[in-house]
Amino acid sequence: MAQKEISAGNHDPQEYDFGRVDKQNREKLLIGRKQEMAERRMFAKQIVSSDAFLDMPLSAQALYFHLGMGADDDGFVNNPKKIQRMIGASDDDIKLLLIKHFVIMFESGLIVVKHWKINNYIPKDRYHETNYQEEKSLLETKENRAYALKDGSYTSCIQAVYRE
Questions:
Q1: Does 71 map to a domain?
Q2: How far apart are CA 109 and CA 119, in angstroms?
Q3: Residues 111, 139: contact at Cβ < 8 Å?
Q4: pTM (2 decimals)?
Q5: CA geometry: angle at 94 spanning 93 and 95, to 5°?
Q6: What is the mean pLDDT of each run of 10 residues along the chain (164 residues)?
Q7: Vertex 35, ends 30 and 40: CA angle to 5°?
């Protein structure tokens, strides 16, 4: 199969020029771009360069990054055990993230990345609210944009750390 050379004269202009794409196809292209953007996540240097973060073993650091990549647009992860197994992290790694307050775990097994709103900004036109409204209602956003448990929510959420 011959490779197609890309030059100014032999590409389909409708691939690149939204002005020449009809309305229906333009919407499809834009939706595709929105889905693409949802795949990108960021991590703030103030969090991942902190002594508290760098003092953790590399396996716990990797778990934090993978949890961040697997989170929804509000920072919630519904499959932390799967991610943990997928990268070969230990139970101690997840416990360390909990103890050092990099993540918050709920009784349901759901985890939220505490510094999600510090790490990520998602424009309103690309944001999809989490499905986990009950757990989200137990959180507040502090002035520094980190999640914290609301008063009275602490005991119901922390029990999952010690349950085995």
A1: yes
A2: 22
A3: no
A4: 0.71
A5: 90
A6: 47 49 56 52 95 97 96 96 96 97 95 96 91 95 94 52 46
A7: 120
Please state, in angstroms and rounded to a whole number, the distance separating the CA atoms of residues 71 and 128: 12
In the sheet that 103-105 helps form, which strands lie side by side, from edge to edge? 76-77, 111-113, 103-105
Task: Tell me, yes or no, whether 52 lies in a domain.
Answer: no
Helical ranges in 22-79 per DSSP H: 23-37, 45-48, 51-54, 58-70
Count how many domains the chain has: 1
CA distance 120 to 108: 24
Gap between the Cα atoms of 114 and 76, Å rounded:
9
Q: Is 46 a domain residue?
A: no
In this structure, is residue 115 part of a structural domain? yes
Domain span holding position 80? 59-162
